[in-house]
TrEMBL record:
It comes from the Eukaryota. This is Cytochrome P450. GO terms for cellular component: membrane. Keywords: Heme, Iron, Membrane, Metal-binding, Monooxygenase, Oxidoreductase, Transmembrane, Transmembrane helix. The keyword Transferase does not apply. It is found in: Membrane.
Amino acid sequence: MDVGAELLSLTNSVISRMTMSVTCCEEGGNGDDAEVMRKMVKDTAELAGKFNVSDFIWLFKNWDLQGMNKRLKGILDRFDSMIERVIKEHELARKKRKEEGESDERGRVRDLLDILLEIYEDKRNDEIELSRENIKAFILDLFMAGTDTSAITIEWAFAELINNPHVMKKARQEIDSVTRRNRIIEESDLPNLPYLRAIVKETLRLHPPAPLLGRQSTEISNVCGYEIPSKSLLFINLWSMGRDPKIWENPLEFRPERFIEERQLDVRGQYFQLMPFGTGRRVCPGASLALQIVPSNLAAMIQCFEWKVDGVVSMEEKPGMTVPRAHPLICVPVPRFNVLPSIDSV
């Protein structure tokens, strides 16, 4: 199986379920919506990561020489059309429930779109005012920021574990000691899995989901003797920082133990040597969600299966906005134990 492709479907389903109450696995129109969204996110990430001559040569600023802007506009138009239809479906469902005297809160789990529509329709709310365009942009941000980035992080972590079987073994022993091998790992177990959390941190150090952190200067600044004009676009190379031998001992070695020894090092932007989600007011808004999705799904993969591969897994990277793997991670999963009784009891 292609691990990366399956993980992309998984993370897309999580975001789709959270925002619109649909997943890629569903049959019919709703499942198709999630799959279309998955493809649009993938195509947008690939376009955003390609070299665009118009971004670097002022003379060609307003010329779409490579046709990239046209393709991106086409993707955004398809997204707008799909989300508009989903919004109308939610509005019709909400109207029907009100006509039947039902409350949104009674016996029903609301998705994010339901909550946003409540704010949009509430004309008495003076503190928060949402337009239809605001709702669409917010949903798009969630898909773009949380789908491929989480999937790629899990895939890189798993590739590192396969190439470092002693790390895989230690992580599996920790998980088995918590679950006693009679149930599937749960999110509530994560605080009791320090080595697993260290694996995630080590993966984010070597393979940050966004290797370049973009910022714009608000005023003239001087950095290391270089004068930075106001309103300049700056990029911080997080990928290089995570491999800097001045900061990290044996930086190219995958060694989660370094984060057991330095427990205080966090990935939420408080320590400048490790900030895969950025820092400050513009920190990634999906950091908390990613730190739930990545370790919980990685733990389930470690716990439930043995993974067979041919030879050593290539760690070659592919250029892009999120630095995906250059080659698909192809593995054969072999069940370690029967998980069905655990699922039936949930």
